[in-house]
Amino acid sequence: MRKQMQKEEYWRRREEEERWRMEMRRYEEDMYWRRMEEEQHHWDDRRRMSDGGYIQGPPGPPGLLGVRPGLPGLQPQGPMPPRRPDSSDDRYIMTKHAAIYPSEEELQSIQKIVSITERALKLVSDIITDQEHDKEDDKEKKEPAKDRVLKGVMRVGVLAKGLLLRGDKNVNLVLLCSDKPTESLLACIVEHLPKQLTLVTPDKYEVKGSMEEAAIFLTSCIEPKMQVTITLTSPVIREEPGREGDVTSGMVKDPADVLDRQKCLDALAALRHAKWFQARANGLQSCVIIIRILRDLCQRVPTWSPFPGWAMELLVEKAINSASAPLGPGDALRRVFECISSGILLPGGPGLLDPCEKKPVDTLTAMGEQQREDITSSAQFALRLLAFRQIHKVLGMDPLPQMNPRFNVRNSRKRRHDNSDGTDSFEGEGKKDKKDFDN
């Protein structure tokens, strides 16, 4: 009886293994023919473009056949296939993106404190302007263009670029001044701002000034506590002193209490970065989504934390914009990891030049050699996970349920990755790699 049961168990396992092999073979064949079809469509599009058929921009994404809008003469060579559904990687990325996107309450709180700050600063500007009028009436009549000390307030950083994540409670503003900002001007703003806030809103806010940071910190006293960092700067700061042929450069002296020049220059750079991002990256398909995913990765994984945000934005924009066709979220993330894996961050590589600077400036100078190697190695490991359909480990989330029950047999029999320290995630593998590297 026992031998009979063992025999039945043996044949049952043989049948399951055979069924699993058939499923794997069928799956691999489907993947092979789908890739062949995509490549064929892609090269057909490239061939038509080289023949002059596509005169209204680049070809469409691979895998799409049919007549392009505005070109009635081109007819499809065969029956039009249905639109390719979103890939599994796309589903994971969009699910993760929905999880890290700020809640409605957070967005309303940020919008509220920013708008209140902007209105209060406008009132402070009016007060300072009236005081200047009282001091120098004759001079201001001759120069009406310079009647305001505070020219305006601009949004910068993740607020201006639309890259906020769930849990972000600190946003940045830049306050433009007509002349070089001084400590006395900052103290004057800190003195007048609380009173003007009471005229704008009944809510309580805490105002602090920092001479070292050349900034004012405004914090809400109610939950959720949001903070606005207002940095003072002026376009005059960027003018190079002592230029050749400039006779008046040595005659004009800076005030004794002028604020830190580097902080003011950083604020001007943040303004240029925001304008560049709005012009180049905001309208690029999948770009903002991938940058949010990578920002979350830099917060979760210590290996990625040294990656400068501005350098990351430049890299994602260049990787996606250089593709021959619009990319979905999954393909875009894979392409970014491929760029990093190729060694673009390593010393001696091409680097990432800042497009907002007149002189060549590498945006990766703040990173050490070991940090660059660690991020490159981590990106290569992430590519391996993506190749084996384990993107959920890279994103730090649980696996999603299979949409197609056809592959359940294969997934249920897959051997789990053996980790000696009990972790089965992208973060855990990064720590293990670091231990092995240190040894």
TrEMBL record:
Residues 48-87, 399-439 are annotated as: Disordered. It comes from the Eukaryota. SMART domains: DZF. PROSITE patterns: DZF. One of its GO terms (molecular function) is double-stranded RNA binding. It holds the Pfam family DZF_C. Its main location: cytoplasm. Residues 68-439 form the DZF domain. Residues 428-439 have a biased composition (Basic and acidic residues). Keywords: Cytoplasm, Nucleus, Repeat, RNA-binding. One of its GO terms (cellular component) is precatalytic spliceosome. Residues 64-77 have a biased composition (Low complexity). It is found in: Cytoplasm; Nucleus. Transmembrane segments: none annotated. This is ZFR. It comes from Poeciliopsis prolifica. The gene is ZFR.
